[in-house]
Amino acid sequence: xxxxxxxxxxxxxxxxxxxxxxxxxxxxxxxxxxxxxxxxxxxxxxxxxxxxxxxxxxxxxxxxxxxxxxxxxxxxxxxxxxxxxxxxxxxxxxxxxxxxxxxxxxxxxxxxxxxxxx
Length: 118
Known about the structure:
The protein is mostly helical. The protein has six helices and three strands.
């Protein structure tokens, strides 16, 4: 999985500045992890995926070859956030209300019961 991205690569993502200068300005303002690009003359830099905003990581995740991610472990929180973001507004409300009413312990019990039934 690719971990470092150039400003030019990031400028193609919806919602991001469209110029490398805009990307660099945003990166400085948000304190992204940066390193000098190797093998390139001048001040070329690249940014670490772990320091990018969630929406940018999500966009990069979906642009990459999905088979790469099928074999790579995904952080449980990242998996939950990605799945939750794909729900409709009504579904998000329903899940949140259920969790608030029943708690995570009952949620885990419910999942375990479903696995036994299948």
